[in-house]
Amino acid sequence: MAESYVGTNIAGQFDVVGRIGAGGMGAVYRADQPEMNRSVAVKILHSRYLSRKDLVSRFRREARAMSHLSHPNTARVFLYGQLEDGACYLVMEYLEGKNLAQVVRSEGPMDPMRAMRVMIQVCGALEEAHQAGIIHRDLKPENVFLTSQGGIPDFPKVLDFGLAKVTEREMGPGSMVLTREGMVFGTPEFMSPEQARGKTLDARSDIYSLGIILYELLTGKLPFDAKQPIEFIQLHVHGTPMGLAERLDREYPPGLEAALMKAIAKSPEDRFDSAAGFASELQAVLDGRPSVMETLAPEAPAASLAHPDPVPAPVQSSRAAWVILGLGALLALGGALALVAALTLR
Description:
Number of strands: 11
Structural class: alpha+beta
Largest sheet: 6 strands, antiparallel
Order of helices and strands: EEEEHEEEHHEEEEHHHHHH
Distance between the termini: 19 Å
């Protein structure tokens, strides 16, 4: 039976009052901070995994990556440390709402205007991360939590930087580099072609994943028909994405499909150079302003679809929590209300 930390006091500040979700590698708890009169979320990696240096380093890296970030659309981290039994913990803001996957499942495809407003904010969070030298590398609807903040509805929070790539200049002495060229980590349904091939990644890989997320928000489906992880990987590398209207017959604002297809172009050189650039294009579409993208046919990025590089053979698993060649699923939180169904310990 999994260990429980309900009733534990953390750092003399946080009283753990209940478990939100649990998985094979750890759990997420709700805790009260009486002095601040607020609730927080606490991610705890099971103490029995302290001998796994890769998992501990990944957990620490998430804390380090998120401590660099202050954008309002990134989930805040308040504290990182270890309990008396050695278990690593991460104290984060407590959120109420649903992740984007849950929203689409319960409400169906989003209105395009609403979807663009959400994604513009997500792009803002990623732009700050990229400017800090941090590539998320596991963006998916489960890792974007939709809440309200300051009375503002549809306020997204980007979660789970556990797979984030922190550039050499951002890593401290002795930091363990968990990823290297030739190894593949991530979620197949939202993985960029270069990530699927185990190549070195930059911000444009995250932009591809953002585009796939937007596609799913708009249509309720992915741009490819596949059943197995390896099929998704192969289609990301070689397949032609279905047009929006082909996937879901509805009206889309002029320029939206062109911007989306640019974001999910096969070659990084054909995508937006930055998350800010993608956001700017979406804002132009939202405002009904003319843009360069409106002159491009939706099929334009297809010229770079084919790629001769082979796809590494993955380990088959599921979208809910999937990591190739290594870390495995750490935490699958179910679809409840309250904090972070996607604050997972993979």
